[in-house]
Amino acid sequence: MKKLIYLFLFLFAVAQANAQEVSYFGEKITEKGAIEAAKLSAKMKNKKTLETKVKGTVIEVCTKKGCWMTVDVGNNQKMRVTFKDYAFFVPKDCNGKEIVIEGVAQKETTDVASLKHYAEDAGKSKEEIAKITKPKEELTFEAKGVILKNK
Fold this sequence. Notes:
By secondary structure, the protein is an alpha+beta fold. It is built from four helices and seven strands, in the order H-E-E-H-E-E-E-E-H-H-E. Residues 6-11 have low confidence and may be disordered.
């Protein structure tokens, strides 16, 4: 009988560990007040930077160490997300997962060298990297905290 009770307690503990629905990276943040990534550009209007919370879907992640990710912002556009002070990374296998990020959104121009570096980190082919010849105006985000939804 004791063995059955211990087995039940062990299975319960394993189930609880597997049931964790979110992981936190960087500062522990909440979802409260997060806007849809597709609405970020409109919310920024003419601002160059905006401190905010955003929720969206991860499109790709740095395959070397998870030091950046891109998030779908609608209209076949994506936003590169880096992490404040390079202090934390996200799992390299989080493509397609839902996230909430808190930090600073920015409108900026990314130079060709950086774009090629990001393409290399993403595992793009040499041919794809060679096609990058112009700087890109884009939304970027420096996150101080990330919530990654595991389900």
